[in-house]
Fold:
Amino acid sequence: MPQSKNKKNNKAASGMGTIRRKTVCKGDKEYEYWEARYTVGFDPGTGKQVQKSVSGKTQKEVAQKLKELTAALDAGTYIAPSKVTVGQWLDVWQEDYLVNVRPSTLTSYEATIRNHIKPRIGAIRLESLTTHDVQEFYNSLRAPSENRKALSAKTIKNIHGILHHALQQAMLNNYIRTNPSNSCVIPRATKKKVKPLNEYQIADFLKAIKGHKYENMFLVALFTGIRQGEVCGLQWECVDFDDGTILIDKQLQSLRATTRGDSEKYTLVPTKNGKERTITAAPYVMELLWKTKQSQNANRKLWGNAFQENDLVFTDDLGNRITPQALYRAFKIIVTESGMPMVRFHDLRHSYAVISLKSGDDVKTVQENLGHATAAFTLDTYGHVTEKMKKDSANRMEAFIKSVS
Structure:
């Protein structure tokens, strides 16, 4: 007796044994597709088989998928299919894998993911994300849209760094086989030239800050090269008046409000690269710090219990911290009102580095005072200054040769 059509079509494909034709109803219509079930292992609690399924429009398509899956199972490279999207994984990654990231860095990551990554590729299933998807995403950032300007190469590089780290963790967790961002081409960022203040501009700046409530903070930053957050987070326990040194081991950073209505909080965190450094400051700087301490002691006596004790070097009259944001705003107002070129607070740090190098400090000393990871980075950043130093050295050698000839 011949087999019925349905029985014939439901027969397993040769050599597979688990491929079946299925029917699903959607409204008044029936749709057919093919499905294969395969075993991925055994439940450790019950000992029963753990089965998964794969489907497709044709028997041939499903047979090919099943062949690839069984080969991956045999090779030990199988990764279970997942419906998790890129956006959902990024949420998990932020919550569970960024526990050691500084507050300001975490805030930056969250903003980048929310504003750039999720709107474009957040809905794509994590396991389906391809290199081309990521490349198209990066390319789109280079063109302006209705809501934003074209992003710079440096910003795109930062976005790539965040996405790459998140996908790398997903790969280490065996959620995806490879990191699709590995082979992407990102635009090359052009290095911006540093803009230190020259001697005349420094003189103008010193006049402009005379008598300002943050005058000593500006002066310490300019003549030690410490960062904005570092000068705000400097504590008295780190100032050694006997040895004339300042230990830089922390900075004041903002903990951004997570919900509307929350007030912004601040905390002391390690320095940018996590390494502490000790600066032997100029006597002028140590004198500034001594005067600051005397003024703070006078305020402590004046305000009594109302004075806030936090061991910070720079505070207001009541001992409250001075935030990096407040310091920056004051700096920009001074620069604007004095008619100086539009420099950043960070350019005070560049100015210190250039002054030090021109004064004859060796590169290693400048590197350590600035807290750079390597002397090579310092040389690369201030190469224009070291080139002048080389010429000055050649001129000194020329003078010596003439003196002995």
Residues 86-172 form a domain with the DNA polymerase; domain 1 fold (CATH 1.10.150.130). The two ends are 118 Å apart (CA to CA). The chain has 15 helices and eight strands. The beta strands are 19-26, 29-42, 49-56, 239-240, 245-248, 251-255, 265-269, 277-280.
